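Subject: complex prediction, re-run

Hi both,

The earlier run crashed halfway through, so I resubmitted it with identical inputs.
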Amino acid sequence: MKPAPFDYVVAASADEAVQYLAEVEDGTAKIIAGGQSLVPLLALRLARPSLLVDINRIPGLATIESLSKTSIRIGALVSHRMLCEQTTSPLLSEAASWIGHTAIRTRGTIGGSLAHSDPAAELPVVAVAAGMSVEVVSPSGKRTISAEDLFVSTLENSLADDEMIVAVDAPLPERWGFAEYARRHGDFGLVTVAVAEVGGKIRIAIGGVGNKPVRALESEALVNDATSLDTQLTERAARAAASAVTPNGDFHGSASYRTGLVEELVGRALRQLALSRLSAMENWS
Amino acid sequence: MTEIPLIEPEAERSVGTSVRRKEDYRFLIGRGHYVSDLQLPRMRHVAFLRSPLAHARITSVDVSSALEATFVDAVFTGGVEPFKSVTLIAQSALPSYIETAQPILAWEKVRFSGEAIAAVVAGDRYLAEDGAELIEVEYERLSPNVTAWSTPEEPLHSEAPDNVLLERRFLSGDVESALANAEIVVERKLTTNRHGGNPLECRAGVALFEPGDGTLQFWSGTQVPHIVRNALAELLGMSEAKIRVVAPDVGGGFGTKAALYPEDVALCLIARQMPGVPVKWVEDRAEHLLAATHARDHRYLLTAGFASDGTLLALRADVTCNVGAYSVYPWTAGIEPLMAGGLLSGPYRLENYDCTVRAVATNTSPSGPYRGVARPASVFAMETIMDEGARRLGMSTIDIRRKNLIGPKDIPYKMPSRLVDDSGHYERCLDRALELFDLEDFLREQKRRKENNEPPIGFGVACYNELTGLGRAASAGPRMPFRTGHDACTVKINPDGAVTVFSGVTSQGQGLETTVAQIVADAIGVNYDDVEVHIGNTDESLWGFGAFSSRQAVIGGGAAQLSALAVKEKVINLASKLLEIDGIDLTLRNGEVRVVGELAPRFSLAELARIAYLESNRLPNGIEPGLEATRFYDPIRGAFAAGVQLGSLEFDKKTGEIRILKWVCVEDAGRVINPRIVEGQIAGAIAQGIGGAMYEHLIYDDDGNLSTGTFMDYLIPTSAEIPEMVIDHIECPADNPLGVRGVGEGGTLGPNAVVAGAVADALGILVDQLPVTEGTIWEGSR
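This time it finished cleanly. Structure:
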């Protein structure tokens, strides 16, 4: 269980990093940040990049900036542990606390997690629910991709071979909820649900039930059309979410069990959202 | 005013106290020495090419590209000498046992996914793996079979066309008529989940053949170095005198390292082909999950009859064990089925017993010994029958057990499998466990939750007996060409009076250096700190079978006690002759020899040792120099250790989540040598048992691919999943020199039954299949 041979370079800037990516013609260069997903894939020889571009020493990518009262900008190298510890976005703090264990959270980064695009990981689900977008650079310039457009399929994203995520723009939800069920503490969730109200609109994203985070559009319509999020409506929205997903079953849980989890966890997340106005208001005072 | 003692000082006692473990300092400062730490000049690294297919004929193995690579030192395959003619054949004289051969490197066919086909030697492991990728193997696929209770299309071994390697019937009394007279007859079909030991340190070995003197050294993370040396000598055609096996610090074993593996033999064969070059293989976790021994993949078909008062009248059982592709060396494919059949009735009185057990080969990794050997599964089976009997008769699950437990008045109790139970202290364990558990309080809370529609709780109970320290009679069952009843120990008092022990025991973290030192210190009458214990080296200790069957405290400890007493006798004899005082009037305590009743010592042990080794001019006539003794111990039978576990669990029907609220274990360890070590053993064993009950599952798909090939999918519980435990002991000394009973495995025996019992109690869901997961709870609650 040792990686196949690869070349390795340390990039001093984002521009240099994408230049390295562009120089490898067949697209087999890979960025390494915290390495928490990539290194196991290397060790199992499931990933065989020709070149690893280490971005850990690029300055300025490990900070969180406040853009406005309603959004923050998170550098690609911000670790899960930093997300846990910041208080501006309680949703990100809560979601990041569910990622792996202390060692993993210390090394793993938000840019890495989003670029890895694991449909069961916490941050992609939160990114879709909160309507985040990523800023990417390439030798030909910059562009912004919404989280929903970033995730294409399991471990597949819409980044070009020479593109790199440098920052995440994260709207701060007025209200939010997060619920996950994992078999053990620190495991990927069987089902992960994030709900976020941004600009008065609630979005519901579900992880672990498809090849990318799935929005529960019918449930969103139900809760956004209603005036108040009462028990009955929450239950209806949860049921609607469950009937909209088609998870695959495996030995960790059957399809019907996962569907049942969706209903329960969407309900829990929405109830948390309904209760979270008070604390959100406090944050802004 | 200080009181002047009128009598000689009390002896310091080490046994029974939690002395500081001798091993811990080096572990804590990072100076433990494991096989993977070993660095030798000219060392080379080995990677194995493993079969991606579960069942196939090998039509060609092309190693030419690998040999052409400049970074590859050597490539070895199974179809050529010296590999071709060496096979592992586990032997048993049981009439129905079919001997089959396991190649060192597969060359005719592969029988499980992960079986080693070739070995590549290179400067480091990375390069060796690169080399292994260059080997091209062509296969002709054969139909694989991974389930022991489905009909195979293509047998694994031509010697066993139906894949059955062993079948044995245990028969006692008249089950037919007992069932006919029973008030109720219960039937259950249960399957248990394949899982394994997964020690923190995977397998590892370094082999070095020294051309200068023709010796083979093998450093191995093995639990059984003497067995390994014995087997290697036979397999390699070498003299045992030319082989040294060393088990340095070993990071967990749990039975997984009690087998001799093809990879071990391959390393030694490679070393002989590359004289003077040490070759190292450190197994990684992916290899371990694929190719180290698995266990507990069983099916139980059970029929039991109870009288109206709850008395168990008869038990009929059909037990099938999936033993994987090969008969594990040297224990044989019988290890699990024979244990399951021999101890199925557990701590319960039973006269009428008809049990057929069989070992069935499949295209999966071989099954072997794993902490508890079959009994976590068989206790689950037996306790399920008890719970079912109670439910049908409207009794409590506690009362039905009380009705049937073997009691002190029944001892010695001949079980229907003819094993003899020497314990009978089950009800005492049960009483104490219930007291610590507070059943009344639990029942109140259970009722309260029911009334308030809160998440339900349930409680489960497991009573079990662990057959430990098997002597020559008790270890005769599998009819292997050896009996594992004895161990040796050498105790030597050095010229400075300190003690060095060469024990045949081995340690994989259990702290045997400590335990043996405690025994020897007390037996001679010296301080614990003055005793050094050397283990795990076949050149140093005379003989020891090693760590398995919870045998070492009983047998290795017994040998340590006997040899220490023999040395003490030599010391007393020497002092007696020197003082011209009868030995009966002398004491040896805290390293000092006194005349009974005198305050001042006549000799220190150091003075006597100096005379024994250095001052032969002072040696009395008829006394030979030196202070040393070697003794063997064999308990002949075994020591049964009683155990009871109780747990309360909470269930969330909406997510299926299972939370363990309380876990109580009371065991009879006989006389406890080191309370903290004993409790560590029990707690660790319960944690592994909970892993097996709720998380750990090695799953093969129908093509024979292991679906749970990494720790992403093979779930081992972490400290977050394991509850605080309440552990207590009753101490009923066993009939051996120390009065001890083994405790290494017992903890694993309870959790399956406790968890399943709690599920039934809280939710009315009958568990027929392990593990119990959130899925079980959720689906069952629909």
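The mean pLDDT of chain B is 96.

- K.
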